[in-house]
Amino acid sequence: MRKILKDSFRYPFSDWKKFIILGIILFISSVPVRSFGLTSETIILLFVFVGFFTGFFINGYLFRIVKSSIKSFEGLPEFNMWLQMFEDGVKVFAVFLVYIVVPVTLLIVAVILISDFDHSFVFNNFPSMIQTMGINPLEYLTSGIMPAILSIVELNFILFPQLGFIVIILLLVLLPIFFIAIAGMAYDGGEFRSGFMFHDVVADIKDIGLKKLIIWYLVTGVIFSVIFIVSNILNYLLFTLNIFIIGEIVLIILITYSYIFYTRSLGLLYRDDPKE
What we know:
Blueprint: H1 2-10, H2 16-34, H3 41-70, H4 82-114, H5 119-132, H6 145-159, H7 164-187, H8 198-208, H9 210-240, H10 244-271
């Protein structure tokens, strides 16, 4: 595990040019999440479309990092074959929908229907609720995996605060399964159906070792969370000092680093599988 972490910490610095390119794409894809205080629905919708579209390239490139790491390549992969990168990003997002979004949605609906929660009030008054709370659903629409996870958690706490911790627990259980499914798909050269071979995912987890997977998941999760929290704190402080541009640059640099670090560590974890 120490070897995996040491390599993953250094890996983002292996090619600054590619690091910057990924950062720029990340910035473009993250625009609709914040919208910079814009109120025009038309402009926000345009940003959402651009951000959602570019998010697939983010997924595709991070998937390429996992794939190249499994194949023992040392440097960041090239930004080429853009159509394939986009297709891979769509595949990753589809796997995310099946492994994360669908189960979370089913859990929320099931709990609401079988509990004393006044679901009729929520369903009948949903539009007015989000308007009263100042929520713009478009700002939560993203194809990026990490932003999508944050959107699920945030929206759940806002709309269904009673279910917040239940959803978080479910996410904590499902995410490592999803990550191994993505790694398995990368190992099989991007074969789409590989992401849905649940018996293969279970076999991979057994080969890697449940204990090792949990340790990796907890350690990298803490590291990723610390980077994410620090980046947002720095961005907020710089924003309050009216250094908005510098704050955004710092935020994007740290987020880009954390994404590369995490996907590299996933690829190395899977490569370290005894079956190799």
